[in-house]
């Protein structure tokens, strides 16, 4: 059941935080993944090792998808799957920043049903289960909607403001901010600190599965860049970007995006 899964994820996230914070980000051993896939540190691997030993043992019938585990097709045969990013924001971690997160989710038949985004160095634990609402450190949270896009504060990387992404080249006049962890960006929208977020490039499932549920349970909408609901445990675990926020924000930002701009680089 989602509630039971949520308790499992919360316990695992807290253990992950204990492990990761034993490392000094700047001093942790670091490698670059092949094909420009980004960095990985010994902390990522230590957290992943613990999670992979703990979570599947507690749920033997669940599949496993993690950024730091070689993927197999076995998960595609399972109705329930763990979708895990041991450390989201590894570059931030390696620079000694506190703005990185553990992102843990359970998905059932492609839909996230339990989720945790935990920032141990900021003492922020976001959590949600289907039909039970979203919380920050146990307190309920909800999205903050807007009247017009001009009123919105949006989390987005600067390349998303390239005019080629927007209908008739008109970039909406909203406030923009940025955080290096995609999971944290989504959690901040669920908290109501920002009205929305978007990333227009293909996005890995492990970066967004937990944030998707937390935003939806906080009363918001979360889709890909074309407005389709996010579904997880795909053979290629990547989705077509993310657009999320309050319902009015989502409607207005989705209309402003150029539906023919797919394939143009964005972040």
UniProtKB/TrEMBL annotation:
SUPFAM superfamilies assigned to the protein according to its UniProt record, in alphabetical order: Carbohydrate phosphatase
Record keywords: Hydrolase, Magnesium, Metal-binding
Pfam families for this protein: Inositol_P (PF00459)
Family membership noted in the UniProt record: Belongs to the inositol monophosphatase superfamily.
Binding site for Mg(2+): 67, 85, 87-88, 207
Cofactor(s) needed by this chain: Mg(2+)
PROSITE patterns: IMP_2
InterPro entries the UniProt entry points to: Inositol_monophosphatase-like, Inositol_monophosphatase_CS
Enzyme class: hydrolase
Gene coding for it: suhB_1
Species annotation: Falsiruegeria mediterranea M17
Name of the featured protein: Inositol-1-monophosphatase
Enzyme Commission code: 3.1.3.25
Molecular function GO terms recorded: inositol monophosphate 1-phosphatase activity; metal ion binding
GO aspect biological process, one term: signal transduction
């Amino acid at each position: 059941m989602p509630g039971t899964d949520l308790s499992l994820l919360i316990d695992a996230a807290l253990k992950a935080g204990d492990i990761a914070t034993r490392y000094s980000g700047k001093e942790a051993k670091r490698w670059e993944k092949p094909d420009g896939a980004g960095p990985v540190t010994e902390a990522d691997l230590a957290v992943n090792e613990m999670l992979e030993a703990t979570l599947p043992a507690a749920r033997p019938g669940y599949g496993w998808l993690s950024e730091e585990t070689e993927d197999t097709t076995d998960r595609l045969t399972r109705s329930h799957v763990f979708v895990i990013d041991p450390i989201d924001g590894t570059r931030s971690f390696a620079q000694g920043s506190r703005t990185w997160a553990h992102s843990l989710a359970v998905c059932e038949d492609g839909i996230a049903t339990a989720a945790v985004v935990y920032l141990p160095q900021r003492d922020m634990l976001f959590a949600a289960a289907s039909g039970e609402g979203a919380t920050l450190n146990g307190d309920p949270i909800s999205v903050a909607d807007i009247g017009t896009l001009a009123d919105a504060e949006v989390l987005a990387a600067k390349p998303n403001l390239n005019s080629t992404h927007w209908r008739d080249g008109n970039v909406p006049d909203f406030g923009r901010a940025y955080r290096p962890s995609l999971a944290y960006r989504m959690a901040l929208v669920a908290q109501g600190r920002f009205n929305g977020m978007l990333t227009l490039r293909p996005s890995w499932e492990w970066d967004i599965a937990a944030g998707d549920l937390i935003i939806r349970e906080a009363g918001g909408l979360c889709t890909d860049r074309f407005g389709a609901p996010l579904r997880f445990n795909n053979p290629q675990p990547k989705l077509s970007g993310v657009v999320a926020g309050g319902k009015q924000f989502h409607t207005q930002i989705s209309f402003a995006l150029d539906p023919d701009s797919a394939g143009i680089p964005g972040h």
